[in-house]
Amino acid sequence: MARDRKRQQETDLQERVVFIRRVSKTVKGGRRMSLVALVVVGDGKGNVGLGSGRSAEVPLAIQKAVDDAKKNMFKVPITESGSVPHAVEGHYGAGRVLIQPAVEGTGVIAGGPVRPLFELAGITNVLANSLGTDNALNMIKAAAEGLKELESPEQTAERRGLTVGEMFVGKEN
Hints:
Largest sheet: 4 strands, antiparallel
Radius of gyration: 19 Å
Helix content: 25-40%
């Protein structure tokens, strides 16, 4: 029963290859070439994972990256409008990514490597900007760190010992 449920969860996961890069290691006899693949896996309902794999062949590197991404999945709170609950800045190495909520109909306004992360998480309206490096790996890891820091209004209210209604008393929309 548990195995069937796990298999069912894995079937509705989508995977997207962010990049495949050829890297080399210099050894006594010359250079050893291998490939690094960065893959995003998500179900479009708030669960998303990021993984990398390394191998001499492309399909093997992608498969290793997918397995790694499935191991490193996390939950992202998403609003009814398909956005993030609040603005957040993710940091990883020299990478800094600013993630801001957007109104319905905005779409995913995010550059290169972070776009698949938002799409597979199920976020449809968001503004994102890279403030640090243009290194794809550090950018996407910074965006993932930012998404991990997000809290829904329910989680924040629970942490403060209030109800969501009490938390927004006196605020005008």
